[in-house]
Amino acid sequence: MSWAGEVLTSALPRAAIRTLLRAGDTSALSSARSADEPPLTIPRDPAREAARRELSKRMYHQDDPSLFQRALDAFWDWLDKLFNAASTATPGGTLGLVVIILAVVAVLAALWWRLGTPRRQPTSSATLFDDRPRSAADHRAAAEAHAAQGHWNQAVQERMRALVRALEERALLDVRPGRTADEAAAEAGRALPSHTDRLRTAARDFDDVTYGGRSATEQSYHRIAELDRDLERTKPQLAASSAHSTAPNSRQGAAE
């Protein structure tokens, strides 16, 4: 059997060959497929082209995978090759690669838990109070209600607001709606210098919870609540009183 006959008899179904014969794609006959059918003599190039045209018909590609399936198969083949290459280069092979991946994931999870979501804006641009004026007692009551339910984020926020509002009510801070927690801590630290570090820590806890995406804890809430109670019992150190107390000493020293 000639090369053209082999192409047609192996690549094309019987119905396709008959279609080619009816279309006049054959010339002379030199090879027979069976005793009752005429032999086929098609030159090599026309036979190849005829087979290509026939096999390009939709009826022969109904069960072919879709474009998405082919892309997905290519992706998984690429991923498999990449994984095999990495496991070959890693000490311990596949097991060593899995251990390294798990270690990296564990480190990233620990960093996320420790540092929280990265801040998108500095804390100095965030205000402490909203537009609803409330007293220190109102903020304290709201903080205790949140703490009783275990909502530590809201409890920390309300207790810090109660602390600052109490200082405003005592005239240790001027009433300024746009004040931030950091600014309030810095201003309060000048009147209450013995609590400067604790005020800064409280402001940082408030900022971390409100604008840093971190979660408050029961300890952080009790720390701010204790500071709020201590500030209530602390007498401010005012510049005027300090100057008044030192004036007699100066006169006494001059008299001596």
Walk me through the structure.
- There is one protein chain.
- The chain is mainly α.
- The chain is built from 11 helices and no strands.
- Helix 1 runs parallel beside helix 3.
Which tags fit this structure?
256 residues, single chain, mainly alpha, disordered N terminus, elongated, disordered C terminus
Query: Structural class of the secondary structure composition?
Result: mainly alpha
Overall average residue pLDDT = 74
Instruction: Please outline the major beta sheet.
Output: none
Shape: elongated
**Total DSSP helices:** 11
Return residue spans where pLDDT drops below 50 for at least 5 consecutive residues.
1-5, 7-11, 23-32, 119-125, 240-256
**Secondary structure tally: strands:** 0
Order of helices and strands: HHHHHHHHHHH
Distance between the termini: 137 Å
**Fraction of residues in helices?**
55-70%
In percent terms, what proportion of residues is strand? under 5%
Cα radius of gyration in angstroms = 42 Å
